[in-house]
Design a protein that fits this description.
Layout lengths: L1 H36 L12 E2 L6 E7 L5 H19 L3 H12 L5 E7 L2 E5 L3 E4 L6 E13 L2 E11 L8 H15 L4 E7 L3 H10 L3 E2 L4 H4 L1 H4 L4 E7 L2 H7 L1
Helix pairs in contact: 2-3
Length: 247
Amino acid sequence: MEGGNIDGNTRRGRTSKRKEMLEKKKVVDGLIKAASALRDPLASFPAFHHYNQQGFCLRLETGRGDKLSRPLKQYMQKLLKLNMERHYGTEWPTEEKVKHREMVASDARYIFVYEVPTSSRNDEMGLIPMNGNVGEVVGFVHYRFILEEELPVLYVYELQLEQHVQGKGLGKFLMQLLELIARKSCMAAIMLTVQKANLSAMLFYTNKMHYCVSAISPSRVEPMVGAEKNYEILCKTFDEQAKSRLE
């Protein structure tokens, strides 16, 4: 009798635990779905619609991987190769194909940076945009809302800027925007992958943006194996649960 009661309690406990896990998964899946469905993530952050600093007049727009025009895709592919080929070395031909596939995925989300032509400048008004002139793309961010360690996270796949707009505070501006989007969408963290050979990017994320090497990065999971890997996974967490799992 007593043994039967223990077994029954155990079964009820396991059923309750499974139900709780399913409910948590349902909530997390809902957060990711809602974040991905947002039509214009920039709408909530008007201060980030433009970047008028360091002598630049830039405008930000959002996009989706399955809505990219052919000229825009070609531009992005060229910029990726220009910025990243040297960091991947002999692995680039294979990695390039992967990145091209990722680029057009339906869950890929983008922020595009346009350099707006200006008509004049004075000390009081600064750069004045020319009305009706869209300007040229000078960079982009590719990100997605995904599940990582059973937590909803915003994963930054690419942050690519043309050389003449690098080192001007724009990268920090874009990452600050992504953090705001992640928090508003109730994500638990922001994550990204950086090539070890890309020292400037590694310093930017760890020193300027205060990201840390994640607990799921190869160098943390298995140091001996991780030493042979050419990348690190970085993260910035927003709550204690994410901190305990990802940091």
